[in-house]
Fold 3-phosphoshikimate 1-carboxyvinyltransferase.
Amino acid sequence: MSSGTGMDWIASKGGPLRGELTVPGDKSVSHRAIMLASLADGVSRIDGFLEGEDARATEAIFRRMGVRIDTPQPGSRVVHGVGIDGLRAPDGPLDCGNAGTGMRLLAGLLAGQPFDTVLVGDASLSKRPMRRVTLPLARMGARIDTGEGGVPPLRIHGGSALAGIDIETEVASAQVKSALLLAGLYARGATTVREPHPTRDYTERMLQALGWPIEFSPGHARLEGGHRLAARDIVVPADFSSAAFFIVAASLVPGSELTLRRVGVNPRRTGLLHVLRLMGADITETPAGEQGGEPVSDLRVRHAPLRGIEVPEEHVADMIDEFPALFVAAACAQGTTVVRGAAELRVKESDRIATMATGLRAIGASIEETPDGAIIHGGDGFDGGGVESHGDHRIAMSFAVAAQLSRGEVRVGDIANVATSFPGFESLAAGAGFGLRAA
Ligand SMILES: O=C(O)C1=C[C@@H](OP(=O)(O)O)[C@@H](O)[C@H](O)C1
Ligand SMILES: C=C(OP(=O)(O)O)C(=O)O
């Protein structure tokens, strides 16, 4: 859904956050589950599927390419795979909605099809850089036209003979790595991707689970074209990035003791846990086995005073979507927090450094932007005021957290896109103790 719908939140100090809660399924895994189950031979059931707009946009795209996908109940899908060469030409442009993940992964996957496709997105996605995938894909033989300046729409010319590539990516991006690996399924020879910093490895793990031969280790993946995928049931773990808002809120609000149940804790996602602990957070992790091949843990978070730190750059890629929430934590910590090496934040659903800096200042915090991060001066909570999320789900939810530490109300503008990653956030948060309602 595009931004600018006019839906706002009024968020204000609630009570301590207590009890247990389970957040919805992982967005990254949900996208990949639809894509790979669609390309598999046979029928796969997906449980824990994220009923968010991003994952549903990907689902709708595969339906339009001839894949039958049933919904036996909310959060579950039955995907009737068409096989690696079974997709059919859609009858018009494919809408990725707000999802960078959807569009970038599809760019690689569709480059290997015999038919042409056009990928479009909403206002936010239409501003995001796509050359990071189209340029390396062109080196494999793909023919993809972008809009002026390298942004969507993407016009993907089918029928290209792709050849494998051995490449070191310029940015640490699981989306870029995954686009290349998905094109590699259709390429002659081997595709090898090396990354400047390791990123989430869900594409690699799921390809392996569905029987495609692949070698991978942190920062490295290699596969060859010409194999097939076998259908398999997939269980999607709870999304760490959705849990993050509650982890930060429970750390900050005095008297809180909140348990987040069975959260996916893939090591490439949990940088925030390391960083919050360095700041003094009280988080107990109890392993709770595996879900869909991913480690899951119960996370018990108790309020603790936080102190500012220099965020170690080695954690940046492992917490890339958690910085808006971390900025709120840093603004409530004692002392100064410095974030560096996070320029990627400028090309997410919004420029997350600028939108967080503007919003935090609007509610009374002290923060300086730098080209690749920020310097955040901690204080004793916020004054309140009005902030704009610029249609960015993670910004909206981060300010709902900030409001729990605010003396006055916080009006958060343009919150409709929260449904892209976290449907039901408002009621789950209110149930846990947040002061939060639609305006
Ligand atoms: O591969 C994925 O599912 C994602 C990768 C990340 O983007 P980059 O890999 O571009 O940093 C992340 O920000 C996004 O929310 C989901
Ligand atoms: C950056 C994000 O997602 P995407 O790139 O898929 O739009 C996000 O969910 O924070």
Summary: The pocket of phosphoenolpyruvate (ligand 2) is lined by residues 98-101, 321, 348-349, 394, 421 (CB under 6 Å).
